[in-house]
Every structure is written in structure tokens, then in C-alpha cells.
Amino acid sequence: MSTITTPDLKTAVDALLPQLKTWRRDFHHHAESGWVEFRTASIVAEELERLGYRVSVGRDVIDADSRMGVPEPEVLAQALDRARDQGAVERWLPALAGGYTGVVAEWDTGRAGPTLAYRVDLDALDLEESRADDHRPAREGFASRNAGMMHACGHDGHTTIGLGLARLFVELMPHLSGRIKLIFQPAEEGVRGARSMVEAGVLDDVDIFIATHIGTGVDKGTVVCGHNGYLATTKLDVTFTGVPAHAGANPEAGNNALLAAAQASLGLHAIPRHSTGASRINVGVLNAGSGRNVVPAAARLKLETRGETSQINDEMQRRALDVLRGAAAMQGVEMTYSLAGEARNCEPSPSLVEFIQARIAGLPGIDSVIPVENRPSGSEDATTMMQRVRERGGLATYMVFGTDLAAGHHHQRFDFDEDVLPLTIRTLAHLALQADDPALRRRRPETL
Amino acid sequence: MSTITTPDLKTAVDALLPQLKTWRRDFHHHAESGWVEFRTASIVAEELERLGYRVSVGRDVIDADSRMGVPEPEVLAQALDRARDQGAVERWLPALAGGYTGVVAEWDTGRAGPTLAYRVDLDALDLEESRADDHRPAREGFASRNAGMMHACGHDGHTTIGLGLARLFVELMPHLSGRIKLIFQPAEEGVRGARSMVEAGVLDDVDIFIATHIGTGVDKGTVVCGHNGYLATTKLDVTFTGVPAHAGANPEAGNNALLAAAQASLGLHAIPRHSTGASRINVGVLNAGSGRNVVPAAARLKLETRGETSQINDEMQRRALDVLRGAAAMQGVEMTYSLAGEARNCEPSPSLVEFIQARIAGLPGIDSVIPVENRPSGSEDATTMMQRVRERGGLATYMVFGTDLAAGHHHQRFDFDEDVLPLTIRTLAHLALQADDPALRRRRPETL
Amino acid sequence: MSTITTPDLKTAVDALLPQLKTWRRDFHHHAESGWVEFRTASIVAEELERLGYRVSVGRDVIDADSRMGVPEPEVLAQALDRARDQGAVERWLPALAGGYTGVVAEWDTGRAGPTLAYRVDLDALDLEESRADDHRPAREGFASRNAGMMHACGHDGHTTIGLGLARLFVELMPHLSGRIKLIFQPAEEGVRGARSMVEAGVLDDVDIFIATHIGTGVDKGTVVCGHNGYLATTKLDVTFTGVPAHAGANPEAGNNALLAAAQASLGLHAIPRHSTGASRINVGVLNAGSGRNVVPAAARLKLETRGETSQINDEMQRRALDVLRGAAAMQGVEMTYSLAGEARNCEPSPSLVEFIQARIAGLPGIDSVIPVENRPSGSEDATTMMQRVRERGGLATYMVFGTDLAAGHHHQRFDFDEDVLPLTIRTLAHLALQADDPALRRRRPETL
Amino acid sequence: MSTITTPDLKTAVDALLPQLKTWRRDFHHHAESGWVEFRTASIVAEELERLGYRVSVGRDVIDADSRMGVPEPEVLAQALDRARDQGAVERWLPALAGGYTGVVAEWDTGRAGPTLAYRVDLDALDLEESRADDHRPAREGFASRNAGMMHACGHDGHTTIGLGLARLFVELMPHLSGRIKLIFQPAEEGVRGARSMVEAGVLDDVDIFIATHIGTGVDKGTVVCGHNGYLATTKLDVTFTGVPAHAGANPEAGNNALLAAAQASLGLHAIPRHSTGASRINVGVLNAGSGRNVVPAAARLKLETRGETSQINDEMQRRALDVLRGAAAMQGVEMTYSLAGEARNCEPSPSLVEFIQARIAGLPGIDSVIPVENRPSGSEDATTMMQRVRERGGLATYMVFGTDLAAGHHHQRFDFDEDVLPLTIRTLAHLALQADDPALRRRRPETL
């Protein structure tokens, strides 16, 4: 099979530069948070179909019951109206409505070869973007139009990379073999969306899976082949329901949900450390009570556990539930909870990491290649996809492309050097051209 | 000195009945909560001046620095606009603006005799009124127009009683001696307003002081001459300020305000019981944290202590502050607090109670007279006024006029039998006619 | 029926004075704590039988399963040996052995009349007596021989009163009617013993019941006819059992009993105050853990609840168990508890109080008579007996005979003015002579 | 310089085997815990002096004020008596008395070369040894004679290794250069003793330092050249002192030390996890309160913090003290604490590890050589010595010699395969013979 040369790739991607900038800034300007990426997803789907991909959206790629942390129906409805007002492509909206904002594009080359999948994420954060003059998006007029939503993590760039790659692959098709699959996932923030695409079967036929992130503390020009620092995590929304009473007149008639929440918060943070790796616990939000002179009858907690391995996180979650149930019993109140997010930890496939390391060293714009980065950091939804791929015998990794940042991820002045967009597209395309390599052949399913 | 007979009083008050109903329902319909009783106070002042009383309002009767729990400036400003829209009497508004909503009316008979003062309260609760058909104010169209504000304690009735009494006294003036003083206080709910009127000197010349409440669990036709169950209380708003940190990436960099609030809540409720009388503690509201994955950097508590005596409450407050300071120190966070309300406990003057008991027995509509009711219940701002009066050698009591209630005080379907309005006015007037009695002569100041 | 005059009583009791002093100091010198009053009970039984009473001891008057807080078998066995060494009357010991140290003496006059019962208590406290020179028992050589046991509450005096009364009654028999019953109970401290005598049926035939205490804050010369301040109480011994683990090597393998106990202690003290009367909670002892570097696998609590009424105490106990169970569940540890003591609150019978008040006023040595004392104080085992008597239609009260104290009850320098002994004996005998009064006739059983 | 061959070493050590067994079992039989190793230290000193070493003991090698966790004077005195009874060498006792149980032996070869030091520890654990038949020391009659003290960690073996090495070195002297220093330290358990030897200057002239441990989870035949898993740690003894009160009569008069300890325990365990490495916290012992019905006036905690680095542990300790002070303030009680133990984490010198790895591979009895073991485990007093050596430019490491164990370290049935004794002695001697190697030359002081 013929390959095209790297200089050719550079030329091809350079031709896309104006379009990349336009896309990135348009998505940034119309930031949409998890499960309401109606405008973004419709534009992505329209472009992919226009390019000739077989496009699936909505419930075809999202398992309804596996979604986590979906907003209330009114919020979804208002967001759909806003998307329509802001130029969403109408014909895709019926399928996306209600929080089914995933898009999958496939292209079969007709030649034998692996199914190669890329994951990018679509959603913005719940954050108010800075309007300060020293924040470029504000100064240049592409800061978020949408109050309380901001692309402060770089997913606007990821979506752009996905579309740029889609265009480039059309040109490269004669040189590719097997199948190309581009996965645009909703609701990565809060690790809420990947499970629904996994459960819909989107990953089941994937042989080689690459998720990417720009930035995350890596220098410009440096590429990480396999990021292995993501912590397994569980997000829980908890409600304690007690009995109100007048705190002066008959306090003994109450069952105090606030005290249950206080006991629980202490108990949760006191869950023992784990000797086999990092663990985390945080009660991030606690709201309890209605009035100063009323025994509080309701309390709500937003909490999360994490673990360096999924096993550690599972143990943290089990203990957290013991604590929550016990705290409720102490005060004679009821406790209910819902899963608001969940991610695995998942190691990159060593053979894929090794392959990438060998093939990308020395590419233009790449000064340094790190094979595996182990430093524990946050959590990442793509791990759920990686796990499914590896369990079924495929190879999976998570790459990081360094870039200069104006401020850290999740900061209201986050911005990135857009040079990372063509670099990432070129590098991923370069790998696609070599994906039918014996070193990457499918193997027996793994037990992770 | 001549007196008029009770049958005359009944006739005179019956003539007021349509006006009483109109007032009560108008005030109910335009419920205004503490410190924003702009419309109510302006109507009260206008009526009192029209009747010939010497009227003082605003800073003349409210000491600015002694007010507690005053809303934010924007809230005050919006409420003033609303009052204007809803028919406030414009000429009083400049003096009332900014939260100075007290009104005092005086009438000097020119004859020797005591200064006799009545206290009524003007404010509504922060509560959404029921719109159900079985709630009479909703059915008959006088439920509160103002979202989140409701006369659910009966202060609309109290204000009506104050105005009815004012009208009646004009007729009775030939039969009265000494001075009459009608005190309309703001912000009784949360025990926030009385102190500012006491510090403005409003009570300093009062010889006989009667505060009244309708309802409070007493049967229709029953009158309590001296309610002695009010608990001394302190209301505190507390803020813990810590340091945020990413709960996954570097939890050790945070100082957790939520955990400080949790420790404090447990410590507060664990303050020891007091052997010399009832005590109470309640953390009614706790709000902490901003996001699930952030170490919470802020927490706010609304709490209250109570005591059967002021001494007990003082001890509760002292311990509460120890707990709050210690909890902050445990987590390395800062703690600040403000006094959001305060009331004394104060016993009614025994001689005044005895006098009232003797003189009202057998009046029309009064089936039963209870001299002193000791059952601990909530707290009451008037106790601060009672204490000042007694400290300066006057007599003071707190009377309760029973009535049928549709639902308990502070319930969103609270309503009362309006028959209590004329009964209360007649009874209070009856006492006024006999106030120049040797048994009620001023004595040496008391140490309470 | 003839009565003897008060002067006669005085003469008769004065003749006993040397014996009273001898008894009191002997019992004080040989202090025996609850359930091990082997020497004391044997001497009491021997004297009563010698006087001609029908004496019952051991399991005849103690229901084995209803005993609470009985020491371990080794402790019982050692105490029996010590009692033997210190002059116990051998022939009673087999029946008393193992913690059955109650004695009941009965005398039937053969004449119609009520069964009149007196309750005295035998046990000392677990306390080391002062050896200071300003402590009379030390100075005069009758301080406790037994380490860690001291009559610091006055039960040595009570036992003396019981024996003195027994002797006096023998002289008075011609003047008495009905039946006399003298009840010497073990283990009043910790409210552990009365229930076992009640369940053995000792109180079932009693018409008039009088329990007595000397001291308790009442002045010398003052007598309380009905003490009503005893709080209902429940004593619980609690054990949390978790799983140990090395705190450095694998803390996650442990289940932490110490943290369960800490959570429980806070939750217990935070049980809401009760609006209908005084309540109390105390975790008096907490011992947890075995070594600094081991996750604690065991924790033990000694706690008590109290209530001004038995209903309040029952609610406290119910909540305490919720807290304990919940705290265990939070940490995944087991919780077991045992009842270590229990007393009711029980009001004295008003008619008996009134009768006593009328009959003792003006007796020699009595300066002041208080009908009912309501001030909440500690708890008292006799209330369980009082309740049984009143439930079956009898009359019951709890009298207090004031005396000067060297230091408060339960203090290691406690001592009392022995003048109270003859005064109490005379007064109780005086009442016995008048017990067949129509005012004290048995009535229908009460529901308390 | 000449060296002797490994076969020679084997022969020489084999000759010592009966003596090694005798020593080990004698020390095991006469287990002495930290600071009371009077018998053990006297026997060690006597043997070393007999062999010709220059021996220093007591305050010459122990800085009095730097000792931690020293028992009370009575305990020290009783232990000295017991040591005397059990055959301690009398002439050393005066210097050792009072808890100065360190021994240092030096031998200067007179030839240029490094000062090579070995650290072994002398103390037993506070643990009751098993008397079960399947426990070899019990079955063969060398289980501990001393109640509550047991060599359950292997220090009896370490002391034996130290003496065996001392004997062997005498034979090897012609082949050695520089100086040999044998350091026998007291009170390693609880990490209490090393600091006092460091502060006495014992380590200041050491160029190469090797501490050793047998067992610790490593297979027989496996040797770890540099154990790097020891956690820095701080041991604190904490006392809360409040005010007692009768829990029924006047609970408000108390200041509750038990609740302070409970709040503290929860707060301590809730100290945030550290993102840069493992941390630990354990409240291992909590004892509070004196009686069920008394507000607890005293509480005592034994706790420890640990950290993968000394910096992490320092932060844990700082937060722990905040928690303790704050908890005391919450309850109005006093808090005092004392340092009961302390150890650093300290990495082995890489060049020394590399050297050892290269030189011991293939020695008889060594099947496997692990260069560095990173798994976090407990803490180790020798790290304080290692740090001093490295700070002054020397090299230091911590070696582990695997062996079969009957039960884990600190278990009451701990026992080890005594084959590890000659293996360790041979290996350490083998290294000594090569210590004057350029690779091990002293370098500039390090900042650790």
C-alpha cells in the first residue's frame, strides 16, 4: 500500500488553516455544555455528511438509560431553542433533541484493514467566560455568547480537530485501508457521556482507538503517546430527606437532614487512604435547610470519589455508600442517590504506545515525544471507551498534544495556541496511514 | 374621671367593623417583609396623622446602627419601587426609604396620668402563600400579591388592631388621661426590629406597655394576660472562608470551608443542655461549596440559639462562638459572623398581669382568662421593649388573644377568624380607660 | 387504736444512739459496692432475724435476669472472700453469693391495716475515699477499708436507719396495725438493683411505700415529703467491633471502631432537646484502640440518657440507638449494647405527700417541711419501686431528710451529720403509727 | 589490598552458627522493649569489648534530650531490676540506667579507607508472645520470659547479626581498611531512638552506612539493596483537659474533653490526601472520661502521621496540630501534646545501591537481587541516621534480607528462619571487604 509523505500532509493541512480557525472560533463563540451540544453536533453532522461519511446521530449512538447527569427537561428544551436561534442545522435537531447529542461518522475504504477510531468531545464547561481585554476571545470577539458556558478545556479545539481530520481523510482515502470511524461525544465534562456511546455499541468494532487532548500541562511541541494518569472516578448526587419541625417549639419532632449531611461529610473525608495507589474524595457542594428556625428536612450533596485504579475507586464508592447510609440512619432520615458521572482508569495499550512513539518522532513540529505519562491528574471519560476496546481485543491509547495556554484548564481565561490544531491533525493522519501494521493486529480480548 | 361603659365600647367598635376588614385584607394582599414595610407604614402614618396624632417615622424612631438583618440595598430599593407601584403614600416614603419603617403615634390628653403604650408589628414572613381553593385569602382574592412574602403570622391583624385602636381612642379621648402611644414596629420576624426602636428612645417614657398577639395556640374567647414563654434568642449569620483547590489534582492545597461548617454544625448541636431551664440550638441553613470537584472555599450558616432566660441564651451564644471559632481553626479557614436578630426573655410585670386579669374577666366575648402562660415557645421581639420599660420602672406585659386558625402560624395556609380584631380592640380600650389606677403607678426601676 | 406520743419516740430512739453510730461507722468502714454487699447484707439479715422478723434474702427477693450491671464472676467471687474475711455472717452467704444481695424483713401485726414498706439501699460507690486529716472518717479511723469503694452518698446511713427502724418497730408493735415491710436493696448506684426486686414481686403487696434519702442539698432540719425531681434514665454499655489493620501498610483493610465511636459521641450529644421537659445525654467514657499504628478494631462507650419524664427518656433512648446503629454502619463495624441501669421518673402520690406534710410539721428537730421538690437532679432507683406500687393502687413517695454535709454527694470527702439518723427514724416511725388512716386507703390502680 | 574469597567467608561464618543460634534465642527469651534493653545492651557491650573494639555506651552515644517516648522513671527502674535478675552484665548497667541503652563499637584498621557503619536495633515490641504449641519459640522454650514484651519484628536476629559481624570482622581485620563502626540502637519501635544517637554525633564521621532488616515480605534468598518505601512519620501523644460536671445535675458547667477528642479524631482522618505521594493518619488509641455520669474532663490520644516524603509528613503534622488546637477551642478545653516518635523518609544513595547490586549478585544463598523497592510500607528509625550521613556527604542505604516467616511482623506468632543470620553476616562482610572502592568515595554534602 502506498503512503503519502509527511511534507504532503503538511501542505494538505496548511490549506485547511483558515477553515480550522473559523470552526474553532465559531464553536468557542457558541459554547454548549454537556447534553445540550445541539448546535455544535448539528454542524458537525452536516459537515460530515457533506463530506461523504456515513453519519449516525442521536439514539443510534447514544443509549438513553446509560446517560448520566442529564439536565432537567426544561433546560434541554430551552437549550434547543437557543441552538436553533444561533444557527443549528435544523434537520438534525429532531434526532438530537432531549439530550442525544452524539455523532459518529464512518468511511469504509473497501480495502482490508483495521477499524481505526478517533474520539473527540463536543461540550463546554459550566463557567462564565472572562470579558477582560487581556483574554483574546473577548478582545477578538469570539468569547462565549452563552451565559455560564465556556470552552475552557479545549473541546472547541478537539471538535475542530475532528472535522479537520475528516476533511483530510477524504483526500487521503486512496492511501488508507480498513475503516475510519470518527466519534464526537457529548458531556465529557463530569464524565457523563462516554458510557452511553459504549452501551450503544459504538466501540464494539474498533481495532485501534485514539483519544486526544490538547494542553494539559505539556509543552508546545511535546506529544504524549499514552497518558496513564487519569483516575477512575464516581460522581454521586445525594439527597437526605428528614422531617421539619419548629426549632424553638418542638425540636424533638424533627429529623435533621443537615446533621446527617454533616456527619456524612466528615465520614466521607475520613475514608481511609489506600495503600495500593492514590485515592480521592470530595464533597464539593452541600446545601441544607430552608430557614433559620426550622429543623432542616432536606440536604443535598454533590460528591466524587477517585482512585488510581478502578478497584480503588470501587472501594471508595462502596465505603462512601456505607457512610451515607449510616449517616442517614443516625438521624432517622432517608438517603437517596443517583450516579452523576463515572469513569474508569484504563492503561494505554503498550504496543500501541510503542508504535506511536516510534512513528511520530521527528515529525515536523514535534520536538519531544513522551511514551507514557503516569502523573495522577483528573479523570477522563474516554477511559470507558478505551476499556471496551481493550476488553474486546483492540488497542487503545490517549494522546496529549502540548500547547501554550493563556491560563490553566477550567480557568475563565483559558485559551490555547491554535498552532496545535494542524499539528494534531497531521500527526493523527500520519498514524492513520500506517495503521495497517502487523504490530497493531487485533489480539485476544484482555481482562483489565 | 368618667368612664364609658363596655356596651358603649362594643357599639363603637362594631361601627368600625367594615373598615377593620378592609384594612386587614389590604395589608394581607400587600404583604411586605421585615424592613421593607414601605406601603404598610406609609398608610399607617397617613391614617394616624389624619386622625390627629403626633406621628414620628423613620430615623426619628429607628436607630440605624441597632437594626439587625437589614436586606441588601438593591433589595430595599426594589421594594420601595414596588410599594410605590402598589399605592404607598408618597410623602412618607423619603423618611422610610432604606429600611426605617417604624411609625410612632402619640396623643397627650392634657390630663395627668400614665403614658400607655401599645406595640403592634407590621411585617410579613418570607413565605409563598398558598393558592389553594381551601385557603380563604386565595379564594376571596386577598392572598399576597408579592411573591415570597405572606402574612402567615397575623401581623396584618395586629396592624389593623393598631389602627382600629387609634380611631377608637379619638372617640374616647374625653374619657382618657395621661398619654397614649401607639408603636408600629418593623421586622419582628427574626426578632430584628425592636432593638432599633428601643435604642431610639421610643420606650423611655412609657409607664404601661402592652404588646399583643392573636392566635398562638389559644382558643377563641380565651385571653392570656401575661405570656411568659418567649425564649431569649440570638440569630447569627456565619461565613467560613477557606481556600479552593482541585479535588483531584491537588486537594492538599485547599482549606475546606464545608468541613469546618460540618464540624461546627455537630459541635453546635452538641452544646450541653442547661440545668436551669430550656435551651435551644439550630443550624437552620447550611450552604457550602461551588462545584463537585473543587475543595469548598466558602460555607454559610444561618443559626440561632435560645434560652428560657437571657442568661441561658447568653451562655449558649458564648459556646456557639467557641464552636465556630474552633471549627474554623481546625480547617485553617476564616470565620466571620454577624448578628441577624436578638431578643430577650422578659417576664410580664406581675402587678400588671393581676390588674388585667381582674378587669377583663367577664367582658363580652371573653370566655376564659389565663393569668400567666409559661409554656416555652418561640421568641418575640417585644421582649426587648418590655425589658427597657421594666428597667426604667414601668410595667409591661404581653397579651395573647385566642382565635380559630385555619393552619398554624408560619404555615402557607395560615388564616384567622377576624372576630378577634374587634374583641382585641375593645379589650385594650377597656384597659386604657382604667389605666390611671393606683395599682399601676410607676415604681423604682427593676434589675431584671 | 392507741398511739404512742412523740416524746416517747424520742426517748426510745435516743436509747439507740450508740448502736446507730456503731452501725453507721461499721458499714462505712466496710464499704461494699453494688451487687457485692455480702458483709453488709449478711449483718442486716442476721439482725433482722434476731429481732423476730420474717427474713427473705437472695433469689427469693432478687429476680436474676432483671439485675443490671452485675460485675464479672471473678469480681463477685473475690468480693465474697473479702466479705468473709471482714466478718460477714457466714450462714447467709450461700444465698447472697453471686450477686443476690437483697434483704426483705416482714412483720405482720395480726391486726387489719395496710402493708407499709420502707426502702433503704445498701451499696457504696466506686470511689477512693479521702485519707486527709480534715476528713472525719479518716481522722477517726472509720474510712473505708476497701480500695476503690466508699460510702460517699449516705447509704451507710440509710442502712443504719433501716436497722434502727426495725428495732424501734419491735417496741412499737402493740401500737401498730397491718404489716411492716423493710426492703434493703442492692446496687442503687447506677440504678441497677430495684428492677430485680420489683420483678421478684417484693412490691406487689405494698399499700404505702416510702423511700428515703439523707442530704441531697436540703438544710438540716428540713424535710421534703415528696421529691419529684428524679429524672428517668437509661444506662447503656456499647461496644463497636471493627477490623484491625496496619495503619501504615494497609489502612484500607481496616474498619475503624474508634471513628464509629467518635461519630456516635457527636451524634448522641446532638440529639435534639425536648420541648416538653428536661433531657440529658452523656457519653461518660470512651475507650478505643490498642496501638498507635493499628486501625482501631474495638471501642467501648458508657453512656446515659435522662428525661424529666419516662416518655422523654424513652425518646432519648430510641434516638441514641439510632445514632449508635448508624455510626456503626458508617464505618462498617458491629455495634452491640447492654442495659447497665434504668430508672423511671415517678411522681409521689399527692395524697400521701399531703398526709405526710400535715403529720410531721412541728415534730422535734423539724424546722421546715417542703411538700414537693421539683428541681431536676439525678436519677433514683426507688422510682421503679414507686411505679410498681402506684400501678397496683398503692401510695408511694420519696422523702428527703436534710443534713449538714462535709462535701457534696459522690465526693471523696463526703460525710454527714449523724444527727439525721435518729431524726429520720423517729419521723418514719411517727408516720407508721398513723398509717391506718382513711386518707391512705388503697385505691384503684393508676396508669402512670 | 588483599581480599578474602567468598568460600572463606562461608567457612568462617559456619563456625559461628552455634553461637548465632544461642545469641538469638537468648535475646528472644529475654525480650526487652524500647529504652529498657538493659540486659541486651550490657551483653552486647561486654562481648564487643572482649573482642577488642573500642566501646561507647550510655550518654556518650545517646543525647538525653533527643530521646522520644521514654517510659516513666518507675518503669525504667523496675526494668533495670529485672535485667539484673536475668543476668545483665553489672558493670555496664550504671551507664545504661535511666534509658541510655545504646552501644557503639569502633575499630580502626590503621589503614586509609572509609568509615563503614552498620546499624542494628536492640528492642522488642510491647506484645504478649504466643504460648501455642505451633509457635516454635514456645515449643522449644525460648519464648519471651517477660510479660508483654516480644521480639516479634526480628531485632533479636539483628542484634545477633551485629555480634556475629563483630566476631567475623576480628578475623577479617588484616583484609579491611579504614574504620568499622557497629551501631546498636535502642527503641527503634515507635521510631524513638535514632534521633538521640544522631544528635550525640554518632553518625557524623560515617562515610558508608548500611542498615539492615530481615524479612519484611521478601522471599528467602532475595536481597533488596535499597529499600525506599519507608514513610516519614510523626508520633504524637495528645491530652485534652476540660472541666468535669455532673451530667444530670449541671451539664452546662462542664467542658467536654471527650467531644473534643471525637471532633479531633474525625478532623484528623479527614485531613486531605496529598497529590504528590502517599500520606497516612491514624488515631490509634483514644481514652476519655472517668464515669458514665460525669462530663468527661480528660481525653488522651495516641496518633501518627506519615508521608511518602518528609515534606508530606510535615504538612500532615501541621494540619494535625491545627485540627487538635481547633477541636480543643470548640469545647473550651486545653490541648497539650508531646512528640513520641519521629522518622524521616530517606532515599538510599543510588551509587551505593548500584554498587551493592553489582557485588552481591551470585553470592551463595542469594537467588535474587532487587535494586530498589519502592512499595510504601511502615516507617523506620534508621532513616534519621541515613539522612545525617547523606547530608554530610556520605552514602547510605537500607538493605532487606528475605526469609521465611511463621507469621507477619508484629504478630504474636512471628518467627523467622534462622538461616538468614549467616547469610546476612556473610553478605555484609563481603561488602566490607570491598568498601574502599572509588565508586564509594565521599562526595559533597547533599541537600535532601
From TrEMBL, chains A, B, C, D:
Classification via Pfam families: M20_dimer, Peptidase_M20
Keywords: Hydrolase, Manganese, Metal-binding
Co-factor: note: The Mn(2+) ion enhances activity.
Domain Peptidase M20 dimerisation: start-end pairs: 236-324
One MF term in the entry's GO annotations: dipeptidase activity
Domain of life: Bacteria
InterPro entries on file: Amidohydrolase, Bact_exopeptidase_dim_dom, Peptidase_M20, Peptidase_M20/M20A_hydrolases, Peptidase_M20_dimer
Name of the protein described by the UniProt record: Amidohydrolase
